[in-house]
Amino acid sequence: MSTAMRYKSKLVNPDEKQDHEKQYVGFATLPNQVHRKSVKKGFDFTLMVAGESGLGKSTLVNSLFLTDLYKDRKLLNAEERISQTVEIIKHTVDIEEKGVKLKLTIVDTPGFGDAVNNTECWKPITDYIDQQFEQYFRDESGLNRKNIQDNRVHCCLYFISPFGHGLRPVDVEFMKALHEKVNIVPLIAKADCLIPSEIRKLKERIREEIDKFGIKVYQFPECDSDEDEEFKQQDRELKESAPFAVIGSNTVVEAKGQRVRGRLYPWGIVEVENQAHCDFVKLRNMLIRTHMHDLKDVTCDVHYENYRAQCIQQMTSKLTQDNRIESPIPILPLPTPDTETEKLIKMKDEELRRMQEMLQKMQQQMQDQ
Amino acid sequence: MCRGLRARRHGRCRGNAGWAPRGGHRGVGTEGGHRGVQAHRLRPPRGAGSSLEPEERSMEPPAVPEEEEEEKEEEEGAVPLSMAPGPVGCQLFGYVGIEAVLDQMKIKTMKTGFEFNIMVVGQSGLGKSTMVNTLFKSKVSRKSSQPGQEERIPKTVQLQSITHVIEEKGVKMKLTVTDTPGFGDQINNENCWDPIIKYINEQYERYLREEILITRKRKIPDTRVHGCVYFVPPTGHWLRPLDLEFMRRLSKIVNVVPVIAKADTLTLEERAEFKQRIQENLKTHAISVYPQEDFDQDPEDRALNDRIREKIPFAVVGADQEHQVNGKRVLGRKTKWGIIEVENPAHCEFPLLQDLLIRSHLQDLKDITHNVHYESYRVRRLNESNQLGLSPLNGLPGKGEASSHL
């Protein structure tokens, strides 16, 4: 349901047009204007995929966006992999559909979780995300802010292996290291090796463990109370089927006289776009059709702000320690702070933080209501 | 099932009165455990001048450093069967009844029963316990003996052995399944294979100690691991560094049978590609998995084993539930897009694995464990004890003076 349609339904019906025209100001067309402008400007979206190799990440990305981003990829054999650390590889592709342009960047993380010793194998990934934040921070504080390139990672699809009984230690550590920097959407990969009862059990188990370890995965926003029932129903189903059990496929096979995307086995054909077979459609809808903008918003409003606050705090404490004015951002006007003013600054910081927390709590309460 | 009357394969008949001809192993000195022996030589007991006690038969061939002595002795008196001209063929002009020995052996072995020890290794969740249950068509896995326990990944690799006695058509088998939960599950998996290697060597040690006692049991309890089934996750790419490390170390001390677990996630083309890559990997790293090429005895064996080697590693699917398919009840997994029949060779290679492990090569696994892996362990231990000048095997309770001559 696009925003345009939602607002149209509230427009007057022709009978009462006469009366309403006197009260009709006309800013209800604002969304349409925004729509037109953004179509011209185009959108951008950065998606990161992470998980052990062989879980079908590349296939899924190709299936999601119906392109072949990994045409010339060479699968590394074990010798080459032994000496490798986790790399970060970016693929950028421009897709256009019905006049709307999307600049899609996929950040791939080959080598994650492959070695015998995987301690801190997520460090290159957290470093990359921080780098993007830092770059945006600098750009934002710079003089010319017209064309800031937004390379921040908007969403991270984390592939959980279906062969385990839940989350593995490396999964838990990865998600805990990243849940405050990026929106994590956990997925159960290669779900065609699970029968429906196993999928249910695994999803429950994963949800339990996510709660147990306090991992903050991306939460779907609550839908407004004035949405129609169908939308609410869809939203509920979406929430209940997290984490999504997905299957990806690049090949088209024949099934019941139709050509579908799927995988051909001797015992049957798995259709990727069949909701009864897997949650691929739900993931695609969520990621692209309904929640893409929300993902970007949360990245900007929550993760980036957290980073920014941390960064500034570090800088201020550094300044007070070094007694030097060196920051590229002229925030603190104090040349030589003495201990008293230092204490005052710290107290004010604390107060600010407390107030922010209270604000957040109040906002949440309002949303719950 | 000894392969009949061939002079070489008498290692199995230990039940007979403690005289089993065993020759020295020329050519065994490395850890490779090469079965270079062509025949067992029947050696007369050694005379004085050695530390052997006169009562002791030549059960303990001297350690390898004394090989020169062996050679001299050979020139003296012992005539190795392999060097003698082949036995002269005689024509039988009536029915003698030699073949009845096969029946006698069968009856005897049925009475004593078989022992088979299998170990399953792989990351958690790859279907090891289900596979073992499916293989032996009974609930023999670790999970079945501890029902209702939740799956938890232990912090270190643990080894749990469960023994069951299963019977089929009067033949009893004492089956021991050793499971290794916690393998490969941690973030840092370095040396997670050490507890497994230690366990395998411990079993060899135990057998060795029993063997060198003065008064040995008639039938030494055999806890040595006869086969280790290694479960490779179906990534479809290559073997992971962890898989290579493990198989490299373990194929030297035990028969390793790699299988592709949960193969219902690979299409047939993906399966074939994956297998080929794995075979290349194994060749590049010189890992010899079971059936090893070096131990093929004759062209027949070689042909049979070559066929098996083409298909290694088997792509298996395990299931413990039965479903109706075309009026028959089959073991399988029921998904929304079809039923995967575990025992259908068109679906997965479980029947091949079952054949290999149980129906055709079970005795071969035991023989190779006994004749090759155990022997090379023994040689190593003897070398160690000789080099150190100590007898680490001393102190064993035994009648008479020194309990062992080592």
TrEMBL record, chain A:
Lyase keyword on record: no
Record Gene3D superfamilies: P-loop containing nucleotide triphosphate hydrolases
GO biological process: cell division
Pfam families: Septin
InterPro entries xrefs: G_SEPTIN_dom (IPR030379), P-loop_NTPase (IPR027417), Septin (IPR016491)
Top-rank taxon, per record: Eukaryota
TM regions (residue ranges): none
Cytoplasm found in the keyword field: yes
Keywords, comma-separated and alphabetical: Cell cycle, Cell division, Cytoplasm, GTP-binding, Nucleotide-binding
GO MF annotations in UniProt: GTP binding
Location(s), subcellular: Cytoplasm
One cellular component term from this protein's GO annotations in UniProt: cytoplasm
Annotated site, Important for dimerization, chain positions: F163
Septin-type G domain sequence ranges: 41-314
Similarity field: Belongs to the TRAFAC class TrmE-Era-EngA-EngB-Septin-like GTPase superfamily. Septin GTPase family.
Protein name: Septin
Source species: Ficedula albicollis (Collared flycatcher)
Lineage: Eukaryota, Metazoa, Chordata, Craniata, Vertebrata
This protein's encoding gene: SEPTIN5
From TrEMBL, chain B:
GO biological process: cell division
Keywords carried by this UniProt record: Cell cycle, Cell division, Cytoplasm, Cytoskeleton, GTP-binding, Nucleotide-binding
Keyword Nucleotide-binding: yes
Composition bias type Acidic residues, residue spans: 65-77
Localization terms from the record: Cytoplasm, Cytoskeleton
Disordered as annotated region, ranges: 13-83
CC terms in the record's Gene Ontology section: cytoskeleton
SUPFAM superfamilies xref list: P-loop containing nucleoside triphosphate hydrolases
Family designation: Belongs to the TRAFAC class TrmE-Era-EngA-EngB-Septin-like GTPase superfamily. Septin GTPase family.
Origin: domain of life: Eukaryota
One Pfam entry name: Septin
UniProt-recorded Gene Ontology molecular function terms: GTP binding
Domain Septin-type G: 112-384
CDD domains for the chain: CDC_Septin
Name the UniProt record assigns to this protein: Septin-type G domain-containing protein
